[in-house]
Structures are given as structure tokens and as C-alpha cells.
Amino acid sequence: MGTRSITIGILGAGYWGPNLIRSFAETPGCEVRYVCDLRQDLLAKIAKRFQQVNVTTRFDDLLNDPEVDGIVIATPAATHADLAARALNAGKHVLVEKPLAHEVEAGEKLVRLAEAQKRILMVGHTFEFNPAVRKLKDIIRDPAFGDVVYLYSRRVNLGVLRQDVNSLWNLAPHDVSIILFLFEEYPRSVIAHGLAHIRKGVEDVAFMYLEFPSGKIAHVHVSWLDPSKVRTMTVIGSRRMVVYDDVDPETRLKIYDRGFEIESTMSGIDHSDPSSYTYRVRSGDIIAPHIEWKEPLALECRHFVETVREGGVPLTDGHNGLRVVRVLAAATASMHQNGRRIEVPAPVKS
Ligand SMILES: NC(=O)c1ccc[n+]([C@@H]2O[C@H](COP(=O)([O-])OP(=O)(O)OC[C@H]3O[C@@H](n4cnc5c(N)ncnc54)[C@H](O)[C@@H]3O)[C@@H](O)[C@H]2O)c1
């Protein structure tokens, strides 16, 4: 592809699409030629705001234009697999919003199709580009943090209520992608519970518990039925603890130098004699590290453009997206069997 500018078309101009349109429009080396949506009213708004863009209700306009290199898909989750397959079959590179697909088999087909077509398949796991998440990974991998013991995450708010997927498939792709990125380990099993209160069969709230081969555990709570917006992730290490708060731009990360220390009660510690030792709380500094902030979506868009122009494998490629889909599918199976522990199939390629 060399260094020529690439041409892209964006599908879906609902809530998230305009963010992608703006971000790609600002990305060097890329021209947004088309925006496609089924709704004329949304296209009229886009045409007013982005005057250099062609708007259309026909996906084929994008697929049939030989100058379009890449298609960006920001339509509802249940449509991703079908639309991404059409784009790959037309020989286009694809950036598809999370989740890659709504079923494991559909995700696997996409990964195979991208390989057969020799086209890039990237998934919009935006948080893997987030400088705070990347810093969080550095922190928990620093020997000073000790071993990671467990992690828990909350992603709750009042809304946005989705029609096509439940809160697990809408919100938890973010948490799962972050956890797999941080741990570099694939869960062994998952247990999940959920509750559908507003509409029958569509869980508004879900609790997911992941167990990893190393012994670490992670818990994820997602909901669109909660009084206020919370986006926090807490990681507990054997020496330190860290809280990531995505809605606190001043202090996204706080490192707590806290834990328990073993202390002798006699002349020395004898592990076979519990009366020879006690545990003392160690309470040290709380540090808010500086984060070199850049907008995650801008970094994601730039990465897609660079990968299409220069070749290579994107950070959040189809395999990465498929790993997240496998975990969510196992969690769904658990949720539908009253929280039965479900083994997560090992990824074919890590
Ligand atoms: N990365 C993130 O942080 C993030 C944030 C929000 C949403 N998302 C993802 O973005 C996607 C879209 O979410 P949203 O909130 O914008 O949904 P939305 O329902 O607001 O918008 C989706 C749009 O797609 C259009 N559409 C549906 N089928 C189409 C088709 N076949 N051709 C053309 N247009 C079609 C709809 O008319 C609608 O305007 C979802 O996959 C969601 O998971 C990602």
C-alpha cells in the first residue's frame, strides 16, 4: 500500500458513528469518502457537519467503489458479522466496532475470511489504545506491585438501553478486552448471572466471574440500570493496589502502597505456629501517576490507517476480537444455566 492516503467508508451514523467520522476525518493519511446509514435524517445531519463526505443509504456504494480501501462498521452489534463479511468479500479492509460478532462461529468465520482475503480485520477495542490502561499495565507488571491477586471492574450507568444485545454483550467487551490485555492470560472458566427487568430476555445487569490458570480471579459488573455512571477497575497486588477511574480525568489512576505485612509476635516467625506471627496493615503513600494523555479513539483510528497503509497485524486483530467473543459466549451460557461454571475454550491462536 505504501504511503499513499487511504480512502474509507463508515457504516452507521447513530450514537458512536459520528465520533468515528470525526476521528478519521482528523487522522492523517486518510480520506472519509462515504458515510452510510439506513436513516436519512441522520445522514442529513452528517452531510451538514462533514461537507466533504458523500452520504448514502446503500452499502453497495461503498463496496463497489474500487478506491475505497477500508470499511468501518459502527452498526448494532448483532449486524457486525454479516456486514463485516460483506466488506471482506468485496476486498476491503475492515475495522468493526466491538464486539467482533455476536456468536463464536460467526467470529471464527470472519477471522478465516480475512485471512483468505488477505485483508486486515481489526476490532474497535478502544481501551487497548487508552493511555491510562497502558499505564495500568505497566504498573501491575512492575515488580514493586508484587503478584496480581485479583481484579474487579464496574461499568454501570442509567442507559444506554440497547435493542439488539444485552448489557453483557454491549458493555462487557470493554472489560474483557482490558482484562485479557492486562493479564496476557486467557481465563479457564467463567460463571455469570444476569437479570432482565425492563424487557423479557434482555439482561439489564450482569455479573461475571473469571478464573485464570495462574490462580488470579476477575469480577465484572455491567449494567444500564444503575443510578449513576461508574467506570472503575481495581487491581489488587501482593504489594500494592491500583484503582483506574475512567470518569475522573484528573486522577485516572491511583496507586495505593498498601497491604498486609507479616510480623513476628515472638523471637521469630514459625509458619507452623500461628501464635508466632500476626498480620499488620501497611498503609503507605497514594500516588496519582502522570499519564501522557491522547484520545484513545484517535489512537485507534490512526492505528487502523497505518496498518492498512503499511501492512502488518493490528493490535486488536480478529483473533483478539474472537477471544473476547469466546469469553462472552461462555458467560452467556453460564447465565442461561443459572450460573453454572463453564469452561472457556482455549483460543486457537493467542
Ligand atoms: N468503542 C466504544 O467505546 C463504543 C461506544 C459506543 C458504541 N460502540 C459500538 O458502536 C456500534 C454502534 O453503536 P451505537 O451506539 O452508535 O448504535 P446506534 O443504534 O445509535 O447506531 C447504529 C446505526 O447503525 C445504523 N444501521 C443499522 N444497520 C445498518 C446497515 N445495515 N447499514 C447502514 N446502517 C445501519 C442504524 O440506522 C443506526 O443509525 C455498536 O457496535 C457499539 O457496540 C462502541
| SS elements, strand count | 15
Reported by name, the CATH topology of the largest domain is: Dihydrodipicolinate Reductase, domain 2
Give the helix tally: 9
Shape field: elongated
Query: H/E order of the elements?
Result: EHEHEHEHEHEHEHEEEEEEEHHE
CA-based gyration radius: 22 Å
CATH class of the largest domain: Alpha Beta
Strand-residue proportion: 25-35%
Q: What is the name of the CATH architecture of the largest domain?
A: 2-Layer Sandwich
Total number of distinct structural domains: 2
Output the CATH homologous superfamily of the largest domain. Dihydrodipicolinate Reductase, domain 2
Major sheet characteristics: 9 strands, mixed
Which hetero compounds are present in the coordinates? Answer: nicotinamide-adenine-dinucleotide
What's the overall average pLDDT, rounded? 96
* Structural class assignment: alpha/beta
The level of helicity is 25-40%
- The assembly state of the depicted protein chains is single chain
From the structure above, extract its key features.
single chain; 350 residues; alpha/beta; Rossmann fold; Dihydrodipicolinate Reductase, domain 2; 15 strands; elongated; binds nicotinamide-adenine-dinucleotide
